[in-house]
């Protein structure tokens, strides 16, 4: 699998393994299935793995760390995130987490982009992962915390990068506007944008991608399927978009894109996986994987030959601008 390098030297495979589902996102996954998914990804050549404390209150980090513990540390890149500090919650006994993960609520998340909070968060992540360093650290969803994240948050990550505790630093969000400000105003190396560089939402093309390219900041694109809307060759009436019911106009647009893809012998998910990689600032597309079959389908979609004529037709019809 091809790699693309960050300016700090870390090399990401063009397809990354998103480990949120290893944290029991929306439904339970067992340890054996998680291990098998990571093993399948490794066998397919995937060497970039992304996780976060938020995913299953640390479960994703523990499972991913265990699944990779026998792999040569220099042969893969791992990213995690800071900003949500995990703390014991005695009142959670007997309850389930209420943020989308099927895990006991014995821990609670607390927003904290202070120096102490970031150091404590990273220390906890290293312990769960069983590692002494991580390659990439993102400030996680600082939408309501710009002041702290852009000052003490970034400053602490810069300090850790200078000390060699972490490699590249950045921010990960579901919006492009604030990520643009991180690129414009701070010393980040990479940003992860979720759902804003897809076949139906190209918000990141307006300012984020051009500025990132100008500044030498890499972009990792996540949520390429927009929560499921683009994950099937046929778009259903009850499609999900950004974690909620897809508006009729969005469903119609996705179906129009699918018709163009079909004319060129390509499925909608094939195009969804490969679209963001057409932009030179994009280093990797991270896709959530729960099972070996998820990994195999992802790798197959990434390897599908897509004719340039298809991208031109999508652009000419005003459906999807070609970022190349």
From TrEMBL:
One Gene Ontology MF term: oxidoreductase activity
InterPro entries linked to this entry: AKR (IPR020471), FDH-like (IPR044477), NAD(P)_OxRdtase_dom_sf (IPR036812), NADP_OxRdtase_dom (IPR023210)
Name of a matching Pfam family: Aldo_ket_red
GO cellular component, one term: cytosol
Coiled coil regions in record: none
Protein's name according to its UniProt entry: Aldo/keto reductase
Organism of origin: Cnuibacter physcomitrellae
């Amino acid at each position: 699998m091809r790699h693309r390098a960050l300016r700090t030297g870390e090399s990401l495979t063009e397809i990354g393994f998103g480990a949120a589902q290893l944290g029991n996102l929306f439904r339970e996954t067992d340890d054996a299935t998680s291990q098998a998914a990571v093993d399948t990804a490794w066998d397919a050549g995937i060497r970039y793995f992304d996780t976060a404390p938020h995913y299953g209150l640390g479960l994703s980090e523990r499972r991913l760390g265990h699944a990779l513990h026998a792999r040569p540390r220099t042969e893969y890149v791992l990213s995690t995130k800071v900003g949500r500090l995990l703390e014991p919650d005695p009142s959670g006994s007997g309850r389930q987490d209420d943020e989308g993960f099927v895990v006991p609520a014995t821990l609670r998340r607390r927003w904290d982009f202070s120096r102490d909070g970031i150091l404590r968060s990273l220390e906890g992540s290293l312990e769960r992962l069983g590692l002494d360093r991580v390659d990439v650290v993102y400030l996680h969803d600082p939408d309501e915390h710009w002041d702290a994240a852009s000052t003490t948050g970034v400053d602490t990550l810069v300090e850790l990068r200078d000390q060699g505790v972490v490699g590249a630093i950045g921010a990960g969000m579901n919006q492009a506007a604030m990520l643009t400000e991180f690129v414009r105003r701070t010393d980040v190396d990479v940003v992860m944008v979720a759902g804003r560089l897809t076949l139906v939402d190209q918000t990141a093309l307006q300012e984020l991608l051009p500025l990132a390219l100008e500044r030498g900041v890499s972009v990792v694109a996540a949520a390429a399927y927009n929560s499921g809307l683009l994950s099937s060759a046929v778009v259903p009436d009850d499609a999900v978009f950004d974690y909620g019911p897809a508006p009729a106009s969005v469903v119609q647009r996705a179906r129009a894109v699918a018709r163009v893809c079909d004319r060129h012998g390509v499925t909608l998910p094939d195009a969804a996986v490969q679209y963001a990689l057409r932009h030179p600032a994009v280093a990797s597309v991270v896709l959530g994987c729960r099972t070996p079959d998820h990994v195999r389908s992802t790798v197959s979609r990434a390897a599908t030959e897509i004719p340039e004529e298809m991208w031109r037709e999508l652009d000419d019809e005003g459906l999807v601008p070609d970022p190349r």
